[in-house]
Amino acid sequence: MKAAILGYGFVGSGAYEITRDFPTGIEVKRVLTRTPRPQLPFVTQDFNDILNDPEIEVVAEAMGGLHPAYEYVTAAMKAGKHVVSANKQLICHYYEELFALAKENGVQLRFTPSAGGGIPWLCNLLRVKRCDEISEVSGILNGTTNYILHCMTQGGLPFDQVLADAQRKGYAEADPSADIDGIDALRKCAISASLAFDTIVEEDSLQAFGIRHITKADVDNFRSLGKVCKLLVKAKKYDDGRIAAFVEPTLLSSDAPESAVPLNGNMTTLVGKWIGRLSLMGQGAGKYPTGSSLVQDMIDISEHAAPIKAGSGMVKADNSAEVHSYYIRSDFNFREIKEDILVEVNGQYCITEPMSVADAHKLAEHIRKTDPAAFFAGISE
User: Fold this and answer.
1) Could you tell me where the beta strands, DSSP code E, fall in the chain?
2) Choices 3.30.70.360, 1.20.140.10, 3.30.365.10, 3.30.360.10: CATH for 122-285+320-379
3) Which of residues 159 and 345 earns the better pLDDT score?
4) What percent of the chain has pLDDT over 70?
5) Per annotation, catalytic residue among 81, 88, 188, 287
6) CATH number of 2-118+288-309
7) Confidence (pLDDT) at 298
8) How far is 151 from 138, CA to CA, in rounded Å?
9) Is the pLDDT higher at 45 or at 335?
10) Where are the domains of the chain?
11) Whole-number Cα distances in Å, 2 to 32, 82, 287
12) Would you say 228 and 256 are in contact if contact means Cβ atoms under 8 Å apart?
């Protein structure tokens, strides 16, 4: 099968090199780049060279962002070309529309690199649910924040220093907002939940706390509590059909499996009725891990694998039934909060009684009006 790759950054170049050096059955005929690369004869800056080439059957999108990625992949599908993508923002934002367009034009849309990177997360989730009922998905789905939290925990380093180090090493973007504010993980959570529960979980309905305001003092407090902090996603389907879906820094016991995930690693977990708890751990990003997942999607199409199907009906996340305690560090006057929700208050932080995720986010909104640097973390029971 002949393919084109849109974008020649880390993921695009990784995917190309894998197809070049390994007998995958995929031949990359064209690569679209923004800048000329005279040393690569198959490179083009004109998308029409790909769109109008009948030999190219699959387009692999590795550009990132919404535009022009959206315009390119929709044009490709309308031209009868399959699309694979590593772009979690694109897939999450246009989930329903892209699936409808693929069905209308008789092509496949695959996107397993968009959540989990090199971990075979979404493809195994799809495999499990063929004969099982998945009730929960969770885990670490952002390598940048895991790297930051790992280094702060293990090295006792301040947030700004570790973030700068992550940027130098290529683990964090120049603008790290999507990672440290939890937005990247939120998108991956929405995609995972939508596939797991055969529906379309509305991106804007998820709730997220990030780690932008975590301090060395917070990490010291966690240690005194015997806890390790990780940024976790969680989505759960209740018996009444409601779906909870959220992203939070979470305080875990030191012997929890997620607590041991080092550096920029990821760990994902699903819970099935029959299979029970199943976890995967590995590189959630990177040139070759994510590039290989993009190639796997192309191979699946070339081998006529069953297409990924969109669920039916758009649903909003409902986090009112998901309950646990919270750690809150703030200069806020906690006397303004109802005393019955506080278990422990000292000069540095407070621990709440179990409360719903929905109520915790309302409380955070209230507190951050006077203390924008307040830090919230859920506490795993």
Assistant:
1) 2-6, 27-32, 43-44, 56-61, 82-85, 109-110, 134-140, 200-201, 207-208, 227-237, 243-253, 265-272, 276-283, 314-315, 323-329, 342-345, 350-352, 355-356, 375-379
2) 3.30.360.10
3) 159
4) 98
5) 188
6) 3.40.50.720
7) 98
8) 22
9) 45
10) 2-118+288-309, 122-285+320-379
11) 14, 11, 21
12) yes
Give the position of tokens 């929700």.
Answer: 341
Total residues belonging to the chain: 381
pLDDT in tens, 275-310: 999 999 998 888 999 999 999 999 999 999 999 998
The two tokens of residue 75 are 């044009």
In this structure, how many other beta carbons lie within 10 angstroms of the beta carbon of residue 343? 12
Q: Does residue 188 have an active-site annotation?
A: yes
Position 380 scores a pLDDT of 95
Stretch among 35-39, 70-74, 119-123, 232-236 having the lowest mean pLDDT? 35-39
Contact present, 163 and 245 (Cβ < 8 Å): no
pLDDT of res. 169: 87
> Cα 87 to the chain's mean position, in Å?
10
